[in-house]
Amino acid sequence: MLLHYVKADPSGNITLFVLENVPDADKAKVNAALLNLDKTAEQVGCYSQKGNDVYVAMMGGEFCGNASRSAAAYALQQSGKDNGTFTVHCSGCDEPLPAKISKVSDTVFNASINLSLPLSVTAETITCNGETHEITHVVLPGIDHYIFLTDSLDELDQKAWWKALQAHVREGKEPEAYGLIFYEAKSGRMVPAVFVTATGTLYWENSCGSGSAALAAALGIKNGKSFKTTLHEPGGPIDIMADVTGGKLQSIAIGGPVTLYPSCATDF
């Protein structure tokens, strides 16, 4: 089986898009093979397009905000235009997502996308290293995120936190995908980890689009007002926005640069 794929870099969250359809029975094998082939990659999905509608099917069936905006950037590159709007349909999310893309160079694009509002935002407690902490559980279509606001990001025992979170989540039914988001407000730094249940893969990601959106929603609700800011994630910046009117969250969006690389082909 010959597969063609494209590499996208949305703020370091390296994504590989397979340009052919991959049968469900082969997705785990293709996912593992491509991640082994490109050690910089963090996730794999299938890409297709019909007009201005762009389709993204992640290999684990999860939702991914960075993959969604990267797919729209690829669609603009293929069109040869300098600006464009696309509707992105991503696995794990039933709602079509509007994306706005502008060309910076032949390989770099500014890509922003409006994401679905959370299904729920709740406060929970978690015990890590014998201490109890409050976290915010944000349920987005296709992925859950657990957010911890910290004053001292560098002092956190990230591996212990992940073990504590996974134990917490597994007290119930594991979602398709879930993430742990650390955020230090004074520096604007965010560190994300994401686990995809179907593929059994955990990544401390260079950036996370859905995690950034979940943080935007949590902060918008916590502060009760609209805001825009730039998150400084390990792989680069991601812009976030939350529109809050009358104390109610109206919309969330993420944006930032996406770099695209020439397509490749490999046999499986």
Give the tags.
268 residues, alpha+beta, eight-stranded mixed barrel, 20% helix
Describe this structure in words.
By secondary structure, the chain is of the alpha+beta class. The chain has four helices and 17 strands. The protein has helices at residues 27-37, 65-79, 158-169, 209-223; strands spanning 2-10, 15-18, 43-50, 53-58, 83-90, 97-103, 108-115, 120-128, 131-140, 143-149, 177-184, 189-196, 201-204, 227-233, 236-245, 248-260, 264-267. Strands 1-2-3-4-5-6-7-16 form an eight-stranded mixed beta barrel. A six-stranded mixed beta sheet has the order 8-9-10-11-12-13. The mean pLDDT is 95.
Write the layout of secondary structure elements.
Layout: E1 2-10, E2 15-18, H1 27-37, E3 43-50, E4 53-58, H2 65-79, E5 83-90, E6 97-103, E7 108-115, E8 120-128, E9 131-140, E10 143-149, H3 158-169, E11 177-184, E12 189-196, E13 201-204, H4 209-223, E14 227-233, E15 236-245, E16 248-260, E17 264-267
Parallel strand pairs: 2-3, 4-5, 10-11
Antiparallel strand pairs: 1-2, 1-16, 1-17, 3-4, 5-6, 6-7, 7-16, 8-9, 9-10, 11-12, 12-13, 14-15, 15-16
